[in-house]
Amino acid sequence: MTNKYEEILEGIPDKTLLVMDDDGPLRMRLSRALESRGFQVSVASSVAEALAIVREKPPAFGVFDMRLEDGNGLTVVEEMHNLRPESRVVMLTGYGNIATAVAAVKAGAADYLAKPADADDVMKALLAIQDTLPEPPENPMSADRVKWEHIQRVYELCGHNVSETARRLNMHRRTLQRILAKRAPK
To answer: Domains (ranges, CATH) in the chain?
Structure first.
């Protein structure tokens, strides 16, 4: 599928891209999809691994998860922009909020996308022309799905403790239990 973003990429001499995510299947699926679109992809499963790659030879592009087991993706964004200021990075997160989006942009990220991110959306964000907004995603998550993802993330961060999660979300415990028992909305 040739589109304007693939045409833009053809005109870029350095197509190196680093995908950093601790979710193995997502990392591999995204890296293969971006490689098939013309990027020269390397992968990292941790902040330490990504920092080693960036320090050895900073890539032109990056797609980084916000939260990993050994640290925060913002550390890698900052290091990449110190070594290669013109690089473009897109942050991915399963736990999005305004504060983390602002922190990502301040650290030098070009855009901030919620997981699960489509490879086309990532490519659009990476190749968006400076000072213009990327096109909106073709199939954005529904409001119900965003709410469900947020609840799941808080539940995970609370160590799967329903009472603590309900307290932090300011909702009744039984209401939370009903939500957790349902499947994810589309």
So the answer is: 4-127 (3.40.50.2300), 143-181 (1.10.10.60)
